[in-house]
Specification:
The complex is a heterodimer of chains A (99) and B (778). Chain A is an alpha+beta fold. Chain A contains 4 helices and 4 strands. Chain A has a single domain (2-87), classed as Glutaredoxin (3-Layer(aba) Sandwich), CATH 3.40.30. Chain A has helices at 2-8, 22-38, 55-59, 86-93; strands at residues 11-17, 43-49, 67-72, 77-80. In chain A, strand 3 and strand 4 form a beta hairpin. The relative contact order of chain A is 0.25. With 778 residues, chain B is α+β, with helices and mostly antiparallel strands. Chain B has 5 domains: 4-125, Beta-Lactamase (2-Layer Sandwich), CATH 3.30.450.20; 133-254, 2-Layer Sandwich (Beta-Lactamase), CATH 3.30.450; 272-382, Beta-Lactamase, CATH 3.30.450.20; 425-472 and 650-778, Response regulator (Rossmann fold); 481-635, 2-Layer Sandwich (Heat Shock Protein 90), CATH 3.30.565. Chain B is built from 20 helices and 27 strands. A 5-stranded antiparallel sheet of chain B has the order 2-1-6-5-4. A 5-stranded antiparallel sheet of chain B has the order 12-11-15-14-13, with helices on both faces. The longest helix of chain B is centred in the middle third of the chain and has 54 residues, at 384-437. Classes of the chains: A alpha+beta (99), B alpha+beta (778). Strand 4 of chain A pairs parallel with strand 3 of chain B.
Chain lengths: 99, 778
């Protein structure tokens, strides 16, 4: 399974925000929690602030923020919101233990 | 129902969808329609998102919300909602971001797990919330500013420096905002306003003049999308801030102006010469300036609470009668509400124990029409000195009249003495000539000698008359006072009377002095008369001479005198003496302790004047009851050259053979003088008038005279003019004036200046012989 093979490698995420709003900060905190717990810290996050890179919304087809995009392993997966529903995050990112 | 149609159609990307199973009973069909309608009509956006995050269904509201953000919403990769609670999401768009509240729940969609996401737009609510926050910030800014401005710091610069710090927090992006207040050439700022990319400006106008500006700007942010525009409310905020600052500036300016004005008037009040007193409605003193305190003789603090009618000031009217308190200008002004002007009154000054005369004005004032707060301002001009000066002026006028009277008497005496001296000259000269012609042992010679003695005594009387009238000519000579004083003693003895003994104590080894002997006589006469008058009944007067060296004179008392050896002529009495106050005044002209009919007040002034004229000064020592000593100090002169046979009968008179032009308008005197001179061996050309004299001078058959002896006062031309013409025509020719007339006349004719010699009428044969020889030999 892609997800399983991915777990063993280095996961990469892009977190799209529009300024470090309280929701964005919650999202980042929750992502770190998940990454530490389920990826043993083998992950990296690229926070993309649309206020600084407004063109990325269109090019990356970001409809709403915060949106978390799994860029590696291949096969893009996306979740919306503050990532406070861990189960939904794991399902959305196709992480093991999520289902 | 048509409303259910779109629901089915929009799901149609992947065929027909319904919310429930396909085979449905009619009631369920109806329910389905109902829910379809609800979904279609809902104002909230509804989306069905599958497990991969792909949108499977969107209602019209969702389409509308997300329009433009993706080409085809259904099928787009939105992502799975991963939220435990409703979350605020931002929908980015170049046309303007929108905010939605995202809710989510799990549903079954076409047999698979999916999420139903609800989107409710909250953009408007967010904006309202943000606006509210901005308004709160602006309010806080204004409130803080108000607090700073109300602290009323006296220094405007401090107010502005504090105010500028409060501005950035009132703006939308405080972290990037920079504020600056520019006022009167000074800048107060929180950062580099020049570096700001957008600015908002408001002018500061105070007192109708532009005085500066208030500026807020935003520094560039790292992001190009960052907003640096200003809200309308922020413009309004800046306007309100500038208005408030303008008020503060104007208030401070006003306070400064008021303070300066107050200081100016306070300083005027403190330094003015006029006394100013502020009274309350009861007449009690509220405040007074230092001038008033000086007049009233109390310190400003001591005056507070007192009334000017207080008995300590013994207020009197101009006629020195007590002024009743009810008539005091302050009382009158308080009772009538009218101004009272120029009331002259005497106030006893308790500090100086003297009466100060003041001219008082009282002005009532009723602030705001409240009678209870009525006040009175009094001004006082100290006119004490003015009154004193007025009194002195009156006294001086009286003295002037007295002096005029004396001058008339003097002029009369001088006029009489002139003619009288001419007659005496004839009597003296004729008797002397006759004595030459007769046997000295004969009875005729004895009679002639009596005539000569009587004539000489008459001459002495005339001299006294002139001395009294201050009209005798001045002829300073080098004399020994021990020789001059005895001459006057007999006359002085007669002057002081028999009850007073007069003692003469000549000093030893006296130096000569230069003075007109007549002035010595005048000094002695005045001092002796004063001494006599100070003695009540029996007493004694001592006249003495002495020497005074450098160390024996208190120079500090006579700073004007030149140091050196002096000869002292002093007159002491054992009379009533004088106190210090009197001593300070006795040399003032017209000061007298005597009745108007008795003295002129000029005696001691004349003594003082004579001493000064001869380079000396007068000292006086006296105590009440212990008599007085007046000492006249005269500077020593070169030793006297005693000429042999200077005077005295029987001695050889000096003779000569030179030619003398004699001019005299009195024929008897002309004849006598001619005879006297011819008798002495001189060749005399006699002229009865100055015109005749000039005519004779032109006559070449006559010898040129060596000396012109002329009278001073003659009709047609006076002796001085004649002498000047003669000397002009015959340089080197000498002149001798004869006169029995007043000192003033002689002085005006420049006779005593040393250019010409002078002999006083009546003269003796010896006197004339000596004088003529002296001039011809000089």
């Amino acid at each position: 399974m892609i997800a399983r093979s991915g777990v063993q490698g280095h996961w990469q995420f892009s977190l799209y925000v529009a300024g470090m709003t309280p929701v964005a900060m919650r999202a980042l905190a929750n992502l770190e929690k998940i990454g530490d717990r389920f990826l043993d810290g083998r992950y990296s996050v690229d926070v993309i602030d649309l206020l600084e890179h407004p063109d990325r919304a269109e090019s990356d087809q970001i409809i709403a923020v915060p949106t978390l995009v799994r860029t590696f392993p291949e096969g893009k997966r996306r979740v919306l919101g503050d990532l406070s529903d861990l189960k939904k995050v794991m399902e959305g990112l196709d992480l093991e233990g999520g289902s | 129902m048509s409303s259910a149609e779109p629901f089915k159609r929009r799901g149609g990307g992947r065929g027909q969808h319904t919310l429930v199973a396909k085979a449905t009973p009619p009631w369920l069909e109806q329910t389905n329609d109902f829910f379809s309608a609800v979904v279609e009509q809902s104002s909230d956006g509804l989306l069905v998102i599958d497990a991969e995050g792909i949108v499977q269904f969107a209602n019209p509201a969702a389409e509308a919300l997300l329009a433009g953000r993706t080409a085809n919403l259904v099928g787009s990769h939105l992502g799975c909602p991963a939220i435990a609670e409703p979350v605020e999401m931002l929908l980015p768009s170049p046309q303007g971001a929108r905010y939605v509240e995202l809710r989510a729940c799990d549903i079954q969609w076409e047999g698979r797990k999916a999420s139903l996401a609800g989107l409710r737009e909250v953009t408007e609510r967010k904006r309202t919330e943000r606006d509210l926050r901005e308004r709160v910030k602006e309010m806080r800014c204004l409130s803080e500013l108000g607090r700073v401005l109300e602290e009323k710091s006296p220094v405007l610069e401090e107010i502005l420096a504090a105010a500028v710090e409060l501005l950035p927090p009132g703006f939308q992006y405080p972290e990037r905002a920079v504020a600056r207040i520019h006022f009167a050439g000074q800048n107060f700022s929180t950062g580099e306003i020049e570096a700001c990319e957008s600015r908002l400006d408001e002018n500061l106008v105070a007192g109708g003049e532009p005085t500066g500006s208030v500026t807020v700007g935003y520094l560039p942010a790292g992001t190009s999308e960052a907003d640096s525009s200003f809200l309308g409310e922020e413009r309004e905020l800046l306007r309100m801030v500038s208005t408030r600052l303008e008020h503060v500036i104007e208030r401070t300016w006003g306070e400064d102006g008021l303070r300066q004005s107050e200081e100016k008037y306070r300083s005027l009040f403190e330094t003015m010469v006029q006394g100013v007193v502020h009274h309350d409605a009861s007449g009690a003193i509220v405040s007074a300036n230092p001038a008033a305190a000086r007049i009233l003789g109390l310190a400003v603090d001591e005056l507070r609470g007192l009334k000017l009618t207080d008995p300590r000031w013994h207020v009197v009217r101009e006629d020195r009668s007590p002024l009743p308190p009810l008539e005091h200008p302050v009382t009158v002004s308080l009772h009538t509400g009218e101004e009272v002007h120029a009331v002259v009154m005497g106030i006893h000054n308790p500090a100086e124990d003297v009466v100060r005369w003041v001219k008082v004005n009282a002005v009532p004032r009723v602030p705001d029409g409240d009678e209870a707060n009525k006040v009175v301002y009094t001004t006082m001009d100290d006119i004490t000195e003015l009154r004193l000066a007025e009194q002195r002026r009156r006294e001086a006028q009286a003295q002037f009249r007295q002096a005029q009277k004396m001058e008339s008497v003097g002029r009369l005496a001088g006029g009489v003495a002139h003619d009288f001296n001419n007659m005496l000259s004839v009597i003296l000269g004729s008797s002397e000539l006759a004595l030459e012609a007769v046997d000295p042992e004969s009875t005729v010679a004895e009679d002639l000698r009596e005539i000569r003695k009587a004539a000489k005594r008459s001459a002495a009387l005339t001299r006294q008359l002139l001395t009294f009238a201050r009209q005798q000519p001045v002829d300073p000579r080098t004399v020994d006072l021990n020789e001059v004083v005895p001459v006057a003693l007999k006359m002085l003895g007669r002057l002081i009377g028999e009850d007073i003994t007069l003692r003469w104590k000549p000093g030893r080894n006296l130096c000569p002095v230069t003075i007109d002997p007549a002035q010595v006589e005048q000094v002695l006469t005045n001092l002796a008369v004063n001494a006599r008058d100070s003695i009540d009944g029996v007493g004694g007067i001592v006249i003495e001479t002495s020497r005074a060296g450098l160390n024996e004179i208190d120079w500090s008392r006579h700073p004007e005198a030149s140091p050196g050896d002096y000869v002292v002529l002093s007159v002491s009495d054992d009379g009533q003496g004088m106190d210090k106050r009197l001593l300070g005044k006795i040399f003032e002209p017209f000061f007298t302790t005597k009745l108007e009919s008795e003295g002129t007040g000029l005696g001691l002034a004349m003594v003082h004047g004579i001493a000064e004229q001869n380079g000396g000064f007068v000292d006086v020592a006296s105590r009440p009851g212990e008599g007085a000593t007046f000492s006249v100090y005269l500077p020593r002169a070169a030793p006297v050259r005693k000429s042999e046979g200077q005077s005295g009968e029987g001695k050889n008179v000096e003779r000569g053979s030179e030619v003398i032009l004699l001019v005299e308008d009195e024929p008897a005197l002309l004849g006598l003088a001619r005879r006297l001179l011819e008798h002495l061996g001189y060749r005399v050309i006699a002229a009865g008038s100055p015109g005749k004299a000039l005519e004779l001078l032109e006559n070449e058959s006559l010898p040129t005279p060596d000396l012109v002896v002329t009278d001073v006062v003659m009709p047609g031309m006076n002796g001085r003019d004649l002498a000047e013409q003669v000397v002009a025509a015959h340089p080197g020719m000498k002149c001798l004036f004869m006169s029995g007339y007043s000192a003033d006349t002689i002085a005006h004719r420049n006779v005593s200046s040393g250019d010409f010699a002078f002999i006083q009428k009546p003269f003796t044969r010896e006197g004339l012989a000596t004088k003529v020889r002296e001039i011809l030999d000089s």
